[in-house]
Inverse folding.
């Protein structure tokens, strides 16, 4: 484990708390519009765990929808992701740390344990912690197959926004912007699927997410959240 300087420790202590306050002030100005809300309500009221699946660009505003303490999220092991992990913990959300190239298998096992043992809903980023953007990886399909929890595709788009200079062009809606939130139909994955089925179902999930992505951003007359992101 890397040794952190006093300055790093101070930033990790202050920044997540500051972001928590500022994000609440910012997010309360948004004018949210919903499509497919019944899918989220149905799964939430069932009392059984489900898996919310998103694209990485949308992670910051998505955190505001993970209300309560009944969520677990996988967060990258990178230093910058420590801020997100601590913010989530402040919000009562459990985190497990891992990515596709570092600790991913152990993190997935820890996430599954939280779902099975404590009945937590899981939040999984379909395109992983390092991309490529809008390209689904098999983690969500594996988790759904093992736990037999339904997948809930979840996409949002903003009328006006800032785009961070990162691999995924992370989006932050601007104050008083309209935000279009689209939930897809829940998806069930059979148990004990083989490698070929995992690949096909990952492709199918990607298509569902891209269709919802097109629907959400199309509501604002655009094809996506920036030309830098290849589709």
């Amino acid at each position: 484990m890397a040794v952190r300087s006093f300055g790093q420790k101070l930033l990790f202590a202050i920044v997540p708390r500051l972001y928590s306050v500022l994000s609440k002030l910012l997010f309360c100005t948004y004018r949210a519009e919903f499509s497919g809300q019944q899918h989220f309500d149905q799964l939430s009221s069932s009392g059984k765990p489900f898996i919310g699946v998103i694209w990485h660009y949308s992670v910051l505003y998505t955190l505001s929808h993970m209300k309560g303490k009944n969520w677990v999220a996988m967060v990258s092991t990178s230093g910058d992701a420590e801020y997100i992990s601590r913010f989530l913990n402040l919000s009562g959300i459990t985190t497990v740390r891992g990515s596709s190239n570092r600790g991913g298998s152990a993190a997935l096992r820890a996430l599954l344990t939280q779902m099975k043992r404590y009945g937590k809903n899981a939040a999984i980023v379909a395109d992983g912690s390092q991309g490529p953007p809008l390209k689904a990886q098999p983690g969500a399909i594996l988790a759904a197959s093992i736990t037999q929890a339904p997948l809930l595709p979840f996409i949002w788009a903003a009328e006006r926004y800032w785009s961070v200079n990162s691999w995924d062009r992370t989006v932050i809606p601007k104050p008083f912007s309209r935000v279009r939130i689209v939930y897809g139909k829940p998806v069930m994955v059979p148990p004990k699927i083989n490698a070929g089925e995992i690949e096909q179902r990952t492709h199918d999930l990607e298509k569902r997410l891209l269709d919802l992505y097109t629907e959400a951003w199309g509501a604002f007359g655009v094809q996506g959240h920036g030309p830098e992101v290849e589709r």
In short: The longest helix spans residues 195-218. The mean pLDDT is 88.
